[in-house]
Specification:
The complex is a heterodimer of chains A (about 100) and B (about 325).
Chain A (H helix, E strand, L loop, with lengths): L8 E7 L6 E8 L3 H12 L7 E6 L11 H5 L23
Antiparallel strand pairs in A: 1-2, 1-3
Chain B lengths: L3 H7 L8 H13 L12 H20 L1 H5 L8 H26 L5 H9 L17 H18 L8 H29 L3 H20 L11 H6 L7 H19 L9 E3 L4 E3 L5 H11 L3 H33 L5
Antiparallel strand pairs in B: 1-2
Helix pairs in contact in B: 3-5, 5-8, 7-8, 7-9, 7-11
Classes of the chains: A alpha+beta (about 100), B mainly alpha (about 325).
Chain lengths: ~100, ~325
């Protein structure tokens, strides 16, 4: 499906500030990864939105299928005991 | 995820037996204000409406670089030149965000560009008007970007995730565009008599085309109902146009400039402005390609695309060479 003349698609991840995760921001076309970084800088960080960039070829990403969402994520829904709020601790007990 | 490769799997089969059920489930999600994402099932009409709207929007941003780009080399000060370059660069960026959002629906960038260059796709009629003076740059920022913001803010809540997210980013940047335009108009309006006249003339040129940007009256709009049902569009053309007039009248008064509409008046009981009829014949003519600059704009885009062809090819050839060198297949 990839047209020979069309630059491939890259997904762009931006770290907004030191200490934060890189977050998916958008996508762009570039001939190679180096150009993708340069374009990402021009396209997604014109107003100091980031201090670090990741780019990855879109075709290299494997994503879960939305039709599988129920079977993937539903089983966690009835496991309330995984959360600290499930446990009622008497008021007398402190710092727990 | 904005991935194009993945979207292809998302294209629905020709006639799924449970199409009615899928559509019902889709509408329920839209009603619940859930976002629809690229790989989710969606009706073909929803997909096509979005491709049309998002790509027209992208084309408008790209063609929209031309009227103002016209003044970059002749901006009166270095600061105004820097501002204008930043604004035009933003428009290019907005076009790129929007093309990416459209591509998540399974159409390629090349197809979209072809549609623009072949004249098959539409873009906002406003960009087919000329910018004969420096004041037009101010009037465009204030009125055209102002009208665009009015249209775009509700799109930040559009049901299609990638479009909504692109609009959030665009709206954040668009506010600078409107404010620099108003600032420019203010400077001219408070300048010499000649500068003030220039500002007034630009306002006269852009006022009616800006009102046309909201599209045909609700009674004649082709795309209204479905788009509202799908929560792509939240307000009707006439509602947004009215809001724009109500916002802009006091801004014009502060500039001590006159809006070119003798029928414009405040309606106390309705708490809104009444304004004269928009010339929809002109709008339709411009849309059909008979505006003052349609030919020039398309010719400029075609020329830019053709002149960039060798750069696109060379970049790919270079990337391929680097890849081969890295994998040790070439010297």
């Amino acid at each position: 499906m990839e047209d020979k003349n069309q630059w491939p698609l890259y997904e762009v991840f931006v770290r907004a500030r030191g200490g934060l995760d890189h977050k998916h921001t958008g996508s762009l076309h570039a001939a190679d990864a180096r150009m993708a970084i340069e374009h990402a800088r021009d396209l997604y960080t014109r107003r100091q939105e980031g201090v670090s960039l990741w780019v990855v070829r879109s075709t290299d990403i494997t994503a879960s299928d939305p039709t599988d969402a129920d079977s993937l994520f539903e089983p966690a829904r009835d496991k309330v005991y995984r959360h600290p709020t499930f446990y009622e601790i008497p008021d007398e007990v402190k710092t727990l | 995820m904005y991935t194009q490769g993945l979207d292809v799997q998302g294209l629905e089969p020709a006639a799924p037996p449970d199409a009615a059920l899928l559509e019902e489930r889709f509408l329920k999600r839209v009603d619940a204000e859930e976002k629809i994402e690229p790989k989710d099932w969606m009706p073909a009409r929803y997909r096509n409406t979005l491709i049309r709207q998002i790509s027209q929007h992208a084309h408008s941003e790209i063609v929209g670089m031309l009227p103002e780009g016209n003044w970059i080399t002749r901006a009166p000060t270095l600061l105004r030149k820097s501002i204008l370059i930043a604004k035009v660069q933003d428009e290019g960026g907005h076009g790129a965000y929007l093309y990416s959002a459209a591509e998540t629906l399974g159409v390629s960038r090349d197809q979209l560009i072809d549609q623009l260059l072949s004249g098959k796709a539409k873009y906002s009629s406003i960009f087919n008007y000329p910018t004969p003076t420096w004041a037009d740059v101010g009037a465009i920022g204030w009125l055209v970007d102002g009208a665009a913001i009015m249209n775009q803010i509700p799109l930040c809540r559009c049901s299609y995730g990638p479009y909504a997210r692109a609009m959030v980013r665009i709206c954040r940047e668009e506010s600078f565009h409107q404010r620099q335009g108003y600032d420019l108009m203010l400077q001219l309006a408070r300048g010499t008599a000649e500068q003030k006249r220039m500002a007034q003339e630009a306002l006269n040129r852009w006022w009616w085309p800006a009102l046309m940007m909201f599209g045909p009256p609700d009674a004649e709009s082709m795309h209204g109902t479905d788009s509202q049902r799908w929560k792509i569009k939240r307000f009707s053309n006439d509602e947004l146009r009215q809001k724009f007039v109500d916002f802009t009248v006091p801004q014009a008064r502060f500039l001590e400039l006159t809006l070119p509409d003798p029928l414009l008046r405040w309606n106390e009981s309705a708490q809104r402005h009444e304004f004269g009829p928009v010339d929809w014949t002109e709008f339709n003519q411009v849309l059909k390609g008979n505006g003052p600059c349609n030919t020039e704009r398309l010719a400029a885009r075609r020329e830019a695309h053709a002149r960039g062809a060798w750069v696109r090819e060379a970049a790919m050839a270079h990337a391929e060479k680097q890849r081969l060198r890295k994998t040790g297949l070439a010297a």
